Amino acid sequence: MITKSSGKAVADLQDISKIYGAGATEVRAVNGLSLTVYQGDYLAVMGASGSGKSTAMNILGCLDRSTSGSYWLQGQEVNSLSDDDLATLRNRYLGFVFQQFHLLSNLSALENVELPMIYAKVPVEERKQRAAAALQRVGLGDRLKNKPNQLSGGQQQRVAIARAIINQPSLLLADEPTGALDSDTTREVLAIFDQLNQEGMTVVLVTHEHDVADRAQKVLLFRDGCIANQDPGAWSAQSKLQMGPNS
After folding, report:
1. Order of strands across the sheet with 226-229?
2. Domains and CATH numbers, the chain
3. What is this structure's pTM?
4. Distance from C-alpha of 3 to C-alpha of 91, rounded to nearest angstrom
5. What is the pLDDT of residues 39-93, one digit of tens each?
6. DSSP 3-state assignment of 145?
């Protein structure tokens, strides 16, 4: 069972465009995108290469700034913030999970999960307690001291998820989180996302795998820098044919 959105906006993008180059070399990677993500949403983002989905996710994650339009995250207008304030906002409200796990090889699982709390200046003992609880939550309570090279790919992704949720983010962004995993491990990792959403966490997940997207409440199909389809019931065989089998 997937949780229902609450009607409270977590992220609100209005008429967002991202332009690279100028004149004859101008490229509109995102073109007039409007999207509101509500608390409790579970959204999957799909689209062919060059459709704008990655650029849109970077803007949503405050990793890039739009050329025009407005973006409000938890009631704060993002585009007007300094780089330092933007980094603080990102650490406070956003969690990230990537295809590559981005764990520090010289740190244990516990220490990797602690990192966002160090930036947030959480006291040492509280950091360790919360990190241990987060690893327990993703089924790694017995792996606190293991370093990444002592963990399987699926276990490393679980550490990355624990790190992403440690500050209780308003929005969890996952970019192809199962792309480097086998089928069995993919199901295990997706079950964690399902559980997090059932507990009320807002999730936006980029994927090219249709069976992964089918777990979400709604699929956003990107084309030509904007959303071509965002109807909850419209993820049909026709949409899949438009995407192609390997999109």
Report:
1. 94-98, 171-175, 202-206, 42-47, 218-223, 226-229
2. 9-243 (3.40.50.300)
3. 0.87
4. 25
5. 999 999 999 888 999 899 999 999 999 999 999 999 999 988 999 999 999 999 9
6. coil
